[in-house]
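Reviewers of the previous submission asked for a worked example of the structure-prediction workflow described in the proposal, so we include one complete record here. The input consisted solely of the amino acid sequence. No template or homolog information was supplied to the procedure at any stage.
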Amino acid sequence: AEHLLQNYDTGNGARYILIVPDEAAEDLPVFHHAYAAKTAQPVAESQFDLLCDINYRLGEQNLLEPSYDEIHTRASEKAEEAAQTVLVVFPLFYLALALTMTAATILTIQQLSETERYRQQFQLLQKLGMDRREMAKALGRQFTIYYVLPAVPPVLIGIPFILHLSRAPEPGVMVGMNSPGAIAAISLGIFFLIYAIYILLAYTSLRRNVLPQ
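From that input alone, the workflow returned the following structure tokens.
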């Protein structure tokens, strides 16, 4: 009740139920009634809509006292949680995608703008006796360090954030393809695919223009 539900639904004690003996509750005023039913088959969303219509019509018939009855089913809770998750995740996902493309573009432009300097360095290495294969490996290691280091902090921050966000819905909602592991894997796959395209294009262009023939 309200004594345990401190600060309504935002404070300590929210979503807790205190179970007491019947003798202790006999003389207490009743504020709410709750009825829970376990059906043989899950209640579909269409059946949930019909129940809500019945509840609405019964509320209209009770003209003296308005009805504050609420109906909840597992399907309706999953649909509501999914909608709330999309409203939060989609803007963040779009922002992360835009930032990833922006960062990859800046890194690529920075690398390609140094083409002349890299060409002079590799020409010097060629004069010192380094063959083309070793130069290609050195260029590859340089690209790996240059692009991997900026990607490490977002991964270390993003994965815990996704796992923490997945605890917001009720248990059993985010399962299967909606599980936190699947969401994290798909998100990382999409971002690293875009990242890899930028890296491949920049590396191919720089290798063609920098390494001696």
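The longest helix spans residues 74-113. We consider this example representative of the routine output the project will generate in years two and three.
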